[in-house]
Specification:
Layout (H helix, E strand, L loop, with lengths): L3 E4 L4 E4 H6 L5 E6 L5 E5 L12 E3 L17 H17 L7 E4 L2 E5 L8 H10 L1 E8 L2 E8 L9 H28 L6 H29 L8 E4 L9 E5 L9 H28 L2 E4 L7 E4 L3 H10 L6 E4 L2 H16 L7 H7 L4 H21 L3 H15 L13 H17 L5 E4 L6 E2 L21
Antiparallel strand pairs: 1-2, 3-4, 3-5, 4-6, 6-7, 7-9, 8-9, 10-11, 12-14, 13-15, 15-16
Helix pairs in contact: 4-5, 5-6, 5-8, 6-7, 6-8, 6-9, 6-12, 8-12, 10-11
């Protein structure tokens, strides 16, 4: 890091390395007389970048960066101190001619050949800013958007505690799923079924989220370790609401955005197929008369149905009683499909946002919400719950990648195609239904909860 100091005349910032090289670049704090925004500008600049208003000197607000104090209740001094802190950080990585404030945001010029260094992006995140390179007022600028909170240090203990709690809740859920199988004489010990379900499900969710984390690390995105979300089995038959990672800096470009969104579902799909194959080997096929209502009937996504047909021959009048491990694979498949909906900051939302503008993606997200409501009316009322969740996620938006000039390359398009195939093969119109006790028929029940994994991997601000 370079050391900055205040030099004469007051308000002039001198870079220590420039002094040593005798290449002094003087910059002054200025305020526009028209739009009243502050900026760090070259001493020869006289007009505001935004409105071309006259620039006024505000040397009385400048303080030594090395001995910064709290701004107190002076809003002007707050802005000046903040812009000086940002200036100090940015110029330690690259040369800029000016830095200007605009409300809660700041921006500075970027040339087409330059990319923001990863360390600079991380540093801005620590200060509570998300950088986005966009074209504004005929200029290519980096806009620094202020987030709700500054980035905090990783709390490893919290990740461990949530994982252990999820292990407990999923084990309890697996035990409840195993009781009926034990009562039918198809399993000796429900504890075996409980741990099979729990470990199989955590393997799928963990594979999904660590794929996101690894991809983020390789593409220069700052991301947290996975947060597993425990849930009381009464509210979620799986004992969990899935898992998520917190993306703290935006993807550097559209290619990284596609890789980030597709990596989790594709790895999660592979893990789900492995667990489904192992679970179906432990699944028993019995006569329908042995299965006493009421019981949950699981809808068969295309991929699950293909694996079932390849591993079992089910004659007429027979019914598969799925082992808890197979149910864990089924649930993991469903989670992958739901996450690939092109909504907000879900995995599919990242992929879709890489190909379209923010406004077009928001429109697509609302179209998906309407489709979910229609599916809820005709097929399964649980889609209403997911429509509401998608609405909340859509409101948060998806700011996109830092730089969006170049479209996704061929490799990213192949990943996108594989993600679409995964989406189509992982969902079914009626995920779960209940076979009625009295009439022996299927009736859709909205109270049967199916949990989803909520991924904010995006270029979302840190709200943790």
């Amino acid at each position: 890091m370079q050391i900055w100091q205040v030099a004469d005349p007051p308000g002039t910032l001198l870079c220590q390395s420039d002094i040593e090289e005798r290449k002094v670049s003087t910059h002054f704090i200025r305020r526009c007389s028209e739009c009243n925004v502050f900026s760090v500008r070259d001493e020869e600049a006289t007009a505001c970048i935004t409105c071309q208003g006259a620039l006024e000197s505000c040397d009385e607000h400048t303080s030594d960066i090395k001995h910064e104090k709290e701004a107190g209740h002076d809003p002007q001094k707050k802005v000046v101190d903040e812009i000086l802190r940002l200036w100090k950080l940015i110029v330690s990585f690259r040369h800029i001619e000016w830095l200007q404030g605009a409300g809660e945001s700041f921006y500075f010029p970027c040339s087409a050949e330059e990319r923001l260094p990863r360390e600079l992006v991380f540093g801005l995140s620590e200060m509570g800013y998300v950088p986005l390179v966009r074209n504004r007022c005929g200029l290519r600028v980096c806009i620094l958007i202020r987030t709700a909170k500054r980035r905090k240090k990783e709390n490893i203990a919290l990740h461990v505690i949530l994982f252990l709690l999820t292990l407990v809740t999923t084990t309890v859920a697996g035990y409840q799923l195993s009781l009926d199988i034990v009562n039918m004489g198809l399993m000796k010990d429900p504890v075996f079924g409980a741990f099979s379900f729990s470990l199989g499900l955590l393997f799928i969710l963990g594979s999904h989220e660590f794929a996101h984390w690894y991809t983020a690390r390789k593409t220069g995105i700052l991301a947290s370790f996975p947060y597993f979300i425990p849930m009381i089995p009464y509210f979620s038959f799986a004992g969990t609401l899935g898992a998520m990672i917190n993306i703290k800096t935006p993807p550097p470009d559209r290619n990284a955005m596609v890789k980030l969104g597709a990596s989790g579902p594709l790895v999660g799909l592979t893990a789900s197929i492995i667990i489904i194959c192992l679970g179906l080997k432990l699944t028993s096929v019995v006569e329908v008369s042995m299965v006493i209502p009421p019981y949950i009937d699981y809808g068969k996504p295309l991929l699950f149905n293909v694996i079932l047909l390849l591993t079992h021959k089910i004659p007429a009048g027979m019914y598969p009683v799925y082992h808890p491990l197979a149910i864990a694979g089924w649930f993991g498949l469903l989670v992958n499909g739901i996450n690939l909906m092109p909504v907000g900051q879900l995995d599919g939302g990242h992929i879709a946002r890489a190909y379209m503008s923010s406004r077009a993606h928001a429109f697509l997200s609302f179209i998906v919400i309407i489709v979910l409501c229609i599916l809820g009316f005709f097929f399964w009322k649980g889609w209403y719950i997911f429509a509401f969740m998608c609405f909340i996620i859509t409101l948060a938006g998806n700011p996109g990648a830092i730089e969006e000039e170049k479209p996704p390359d061929v490799a990213a398009r192949v990943l996108s195609l594989l993600a679409i195939c995964t989406f189509l093969g992982s969902l079914t119109l009626e995920p779960v239904s209940l076979v009625d006790k009295k009439e022996g028929r299927k009736s859709v029940k909205a109270e049967i909860p199916v949990a989803m994994s909520i991924d904010r991997i995006s270029s979302a601000p840190d709200r943790s």
